[in-house]
Amino acid sequence: MSESSAPAVEFRSVHKNFGQVHAVDGLDLTIGRGETVALLGPNGAGKTTTANLLLGLLRPTSGRVAVLGAAPGESIAAGRVGAMLQDGGLMPGVSVAALAGLARDLYPRPRALSDLLAEADLTPIADRRVDRLSGGQAQRLRFAMAIAGDPDLLVLDEPTTAMDVEARQSFWAYVRGYAARGTTVLFATHYLAEADENADRIVVVAGGRVLIDGTPAVIKAAAGQQRVRFTLGDGDLAGLDRLPGVTAVDLRGPSVTLRTTDAEATVRALFLGRDRVPDIEVHGVDLEDAFLALTR
Amino acid sequence: MFTLLRLEIRRMLTDTRFLILMLAMPIAMYLLFSTIFENTPPVDGMPEAVRDMISMAAFGAIGAALMATAPRIAQERTNGWLRQLRIMPVSGRQVITAKVLAAMAWGLPAIVLVDLTAVIAHGVRLPAWQWLAIGGLLWLGTAPFAALGTFLGYLTGGDSAFGVTYGIYLFLAALGGLWMPVRILPSALQHVAVTLPSNRFAELGWRIAGGGSPSGLGAVVLAGWLVVFVALAGLFYRRSNALR
Question: Which ipTM value was assigned to this complex?
Answer without folding.
Answer: 0.84
